[in-house]
Amino acid sequence: MTHMTAHRWVALAGALAICAAGHAQAPASQGPIVREGTTVKISEHVYVIPDNSAPGVPNVGIIVGAKSILVVDTGMGRRNGETVLKEARKAGGNKPLYLVTTHVHPEHDLGAQAFPAETKMIRSQAQVAEIAEFGQTTADAFRKRSEINRELLEGAEFRKADITFDSEYSLDLGGLAVKIYAVGPNHTPGDTITFVAPDGVLFSGDVAMKPLPAFASPKSSLNHWLTSLDKLDALKPRIVVPSHGPNGDAGYISGYRQYLTSVRDRTAAAKGGGKSVEEATQIVVGELKQQYPDTGRINGAVRTAYAEAK
């Protein structure tokens, strides 16, 4: 393992530990369960099942055209996938289904088996490659976090792609054009965003949201993340639906850019001054923790920035 890769695996371990802590703090009676009957319509063609900021639950998108439906994310395991499917049918009836996921972490992807066989699964080539390399390891890590995770993920497997693409894919839902973009590696190598241009709605995944970014893969790149934010900004979204937390607007994108630029520049200065990665981390965390209290995620960002700094 190279020195750079070792640091990135440390960042991954830290991100997983923080996420696990979040799960541990959730009420035991709640668990990572998508709530039926909570779907809200946020634009002419777009519905969202909100996560209500519950750990292990994604914001799920349902995009309804005249001829078909696109679902964005599935919830964790068959039970949650069945709830998402019910809500999609309520919103769009029995139209043909397409399915895409913002990334392949289990709460976003491993409910796909609940969807009918004729559902068309859309994946970027990067997402397919990530599943092959890390998918089972990631799923097993989530299973070990809690008994309810293990129950929800019993027998869960990653659904094979029916449609694959390299950088972007255009989908016509019947008078409604939707664009799907591969933008990783940021949070994960397979980060995927979905933009409903007529409604100005962007499903940003973990690439831009209210909580600080988590560098959850040894392949995560801070420099690439900044490039991805430029792509999101160019879409000029009116509404940003993140993977987790409340809906927002383009301020999520600019907020992430400000934070990541600050981490990059401060880390590069520390490294240029001869500081070790541990010293640089301590310095940058100390400088930023008042503005950004989530020091665990700052730690992961600094280690990634240190590996990339020249």
Description:
This protein is of the alpha/beta class and 310 residues long. The chain has nine helices and twelve strands. Strands 1-2-3-4-5-6-7 form a seven-stranded mixed sheet. Strands 8-9-10-11-12 form a five-stranded mixed sheet, with helices on one face. Helix 1 (3-25) packs antiparallel against helix 9 (295-308). The longest helix has 23 residues, at 3-25. The two termini are 20 Å apart.
* CATH overall fold name: Metallo-beta-lactamase, Chain A
Q: Please name the CATH architecture.
A: 4-Layer Sandwich
CATH superfamily: Metallo-beta-lactamase domain
Tally of strands: 12
- Structural class designation: alpha/beta
Radius of gyration: 19 Å
What is the residue-mean pLDDT, rounded to a whole number? Answer: 92
* Count, helices: 9
Which CATH class is shown?
Answer: Alpha Beta
- What is the number of domains? 1
SSE pattern, N- to C-terminal: HEEEEHEHEHHEEEEEHEHHH
Helix content: 40-55%
Shape: globular
Main sheet characteristics? 7 strands, mixed
Percent strand equals: 15-25%
Query: Order of strands across the biggest sheet?
Result: 1-2-3-4-5-6-7
N-to-C span = 20 Å
